[in-house]
Amino acid sequence: MKSSTKPTKVTLSFDNGAPSIELPILSGSLGNDVIDIRSLAKHGIFTYDPGFMSTAACNSSITFINGEEGLLYYRGYPIEQLAEHCDFMEVSHLLINGELPTSVQKEEFTRTINSHTMVHDQLTNIFRGFRRDAHPMAVMVGVVGSMSAFYHTLGDIHDAQSREITAHQLLAKVPTIAAWSYKYNLGQPFMYPQNHLSYAENFMYMMFATPCEKYEPNPILAKAFDRILILHADHEQNASTSTVRLAGSSGANPFACIAAGIASLWGPAHGGANEATLKMLEEIGDISRIGEYIKRAKDKTDAFRLMGFGHRVYRNMDPRAAIMRKTCHEVLDELGLHNDPMFKLAMALEKIALEDEYFVSRKLYPNVDFYSGIVMRAMGIPNSMFTAIFALARTAGWIAQWSEMNADPEHKIGRPRQLYMGEARRELVPISNRK
Ligand code: CMC
Fold it and tell me: Ligand 1: distance of its center to the CA of 311 in Å?
């Protein structure tokens, strides 16, 4: 909204002479102001906003995005600085506890997380109930949800210490579950976590090591992997985070809430886009075929969309995509894959799309998923694991948001209204008389 002074209230007037209603405008520390419509229900008035296009569903102090300028901050720190100077443990501490740790705090936090990396042995039976070709995200939804049956002695979700223990358990155990969902696909033995390794190295170890050979994670690849985790750790009120909050708003078990978040993340419009992007690049196959796919993406009669492009909030380059492209260069250089055809294809596609009037006028830019698949593929991670890795990174954000919600005195069960379009009351006809 363009004006020199900020309004502090808005008046809602009606064209039938009903008394107008004054609504306050709330300001956050950064970003758009919001009209506080909470009092409308008392007047029997509701608002309509499918897809939450204009609705702030909560207040939060965790992550800030400025979509016009392409800015992303975790607890006030720009993502570029965090990706450059921190590791995922520091970032998780920041998201969950509100501050970056000192070295002593980091050591203690890491030790705590490491002490929770093993999962209950009985959980392996849950894995074994799945088909071997089950998608890792299907396994993740099931196994993470099943944690609610294993760690049900948890205390009160309204107790800060209890929530903290839950956060530690999830952060520690979800990588083990993600890596095991891959091992289960392969038919290889589950590898137990090695707690002397860093968080990223440990995940790589559990994915790639076997009991038969010594496995040393490549430190450059582990660093790149850690950066992928940082970039995906939180993204304010996206679909999966909102799902975790909505599920948790009823006081539901936190492990079940995170499983709900994983389910939501899986969709190709959300976290599933990384797998879908690589599939799309493989399908395009060659720079000469880009035009054909751009044409399809613009065709409203074709369901095809350019995967890894566009975002509800960013109307500019997704800052995570810029960092991911740089990481892509580093990883491919390290692996001697400078001429990786998939990376070249992605860069050519990005260039062509960014010059195309359709994408320019709609402000469609590459998002985080555009390059992440290429980096992970170069590391030897299969396509089917991309979204599972997104899920393990986002667990830090989900659990921070879940904790914040439970600590918020204004928190209420989430219960949207609807615009009913169905039949008005009608009288039932007994089955024998129905036509
Ligand atoms: N390819 C072609 N057209 C697109 C694309 C795309 N990737 N994205 C949006 N559009 C068009 C869309 O057809 C619409 O055109 P029109 O105004 O003519 O009807 C316009 O751009 C606005 O799109 P929208 O669907 O109303 O926007 P949205 O905010 O509801 O959707 C989105 C955002 C991310 C779901 C969408 O851009 C999309 O489907 N992108 C591809 C999937 C993807 O990469 N998702 C990852 C998002 S980032 C990571 C994450 O959140 O997990």
Answer: 6
